[in-house]
Design a protein that fits this description.
about 20% strand; single chain; six-stranded parallel beta sheet; alpha/beta; 11 helices; about 375 residues
């Protein structure tokens, strides 16, 4: 009898040794020895090569594991990315990943909101995070939103001050959005308020491509605007906005004084058209990387919780880039001084179109919409 008990105990030890190790919420696939949390990033068709929003999320993920985008040694085990070519792939993809049981599944952008909500109900033990959404109120979904209007206000200031420094008379400014919605509206509202606080009544034109991955649409629109006297164009359109940068590079190579303004990531390098010269005057930096760091740290210490995290200028959630030496020192000084006032709460930037319109801060007839 004792011999039988010993054999059974030994068999149990062998069986348990083959099971996936689990520490807190850090789910570890079978055979993986690393006990750190696992994560899978899910993006739209623009993928992690959009040089903007998705790229920033990916940087944050790989950096958490001590890797870089050039050296992703943990890819395929600790972390990976899945790109959905169409929206009808969102739910099947999320469900497949949920069945595979990773520690956390991250979706980038509000177009994933419905799919995340449905999967969160079906897989209550699976942890999810989503960026740019605050209305998927599920206990297993961590949501991140930003005060994009604050960072966009800063690049609006910078563009307007630079235009004045350049002596441009009655400068025009453009805004190109991707898919219209409350998030992108915050970019446009902040940008226009920054412009008009420096140049009251500054003329602003806008265009929405209704797509995140068609740079040709932005390029065509940017050319028309630049040819018509637009000085700077701010694009909040994911990969579509790369067309604005491409067109600005062509224009500056031809000797025209026009600028593109980058978004999410610092896109200075993407605008380089000659040695030490970039067509990207500045970028509205949205630290999407921070979201991954926060969520993965919570997973590591078994403290993951649903709810909304709001990242503002005071939280270092948004900012503007000073990488371009063409951005005059006097412009940087002026913007930095105003930035302090926003952090201190002395300047309030309005993020909703209806509110900004009612306050007389922006013009009527824009393509922006509030959710």
């Amino acid at each position: 009898m004792k011999k039988l008990i010993f054999v059974c105990a030994a068999l149990c030890v062998v069986a348990l040794s083959g099971c996936a190790k689990k520490e807190g919420n850090a789910k570890v696939p079978r055979g993986q020895k690393d006990s750190r949390p696992t994560i899978r990033l899910v993006t739209d068709a623009t993928g992690i090569d959009d040089k903007s929003f998705n790229a920033a999320a990916w940087r944050g993920i790989v950096a958490f594991y001590g890797d870089t985008v050039e050296n992703t040694s943990g890819r395929g085990t600790l972390y990976d990315v899945v790109t959905c070519q169409t929206q009808d792939q969102y739910i099947p993809t999320l469900k497949q990943l949920s069945d595979e049981g990773y520690g956390i599944i991250c979706a980038t952008g509000f177009t994933f909101a419905d799919a995340i909500g449905e999967c969160a109900d079906e897989y209550p033990d699976q942890n999810y995070m989503i960026i740019d959404v605050d209305w998927v109120n599920k206990p297993n979904v961590k949501q991140f939103v930003f005060r994009e209007e604050e960072g966009s206000y800063l690049v609006g200031l910078a563009a307007a001050y630079q235009a004045k420094k350049d002596g441009v008379q009655n400068p025009k400014f453009g805004f190109i959005g991707g898919v219209p919605g409350g998030t992108i509206t915050k970019f446009e509202m902040g940008y226009i308020q920054g412009l008009r606080d420096v140049i009251p009544g500054a003329e602003v034109v806008d265009y929405y491509a209704n797509d995140w991955g068609k740079p040709e649409l932005a390029k065509t629109q940017a050319k028309a605007w630049y040819d018509n006297g637009v000085y700077a164009i701010f694009s909040a359109a994911g990969g579509t906005g790369n067309g604005t940068i491409a067109q600005a590079k062509e224009m500056r190579l031809a000797g025209k004084n026009v600028w593109a303004i980058g978004v999410d990531s610092d896109q200075y390098a993407d605008g380089i058209y000659a040695d030490g010269q970039s067509a990207v005057l500045t970028s509205m930096i949205k630290r999407v990387e921070t979201c991954a760091t926060i969520a993965l740290n919570e997973m590591t210490y078994d403290k993951f919780a649903g709810g909304v995290t709001n990242l503002a200028l005071k939280d270092d959630g948004v900012d503007y880039s000073k990488a371009n030496s063409a951005l005059d020192e006097s412009v940087v000084s002026a913007v930095d001084e105003i930035k302090k006032s926003i952090v201190a709460g002395n300047i309030k930037v309005v993020g909703k179109y209806k509110d900004a319109l009612a306050a007389g801060l922006v013009p009527a007839g824009l393509g922006a919409i509030d959710d």
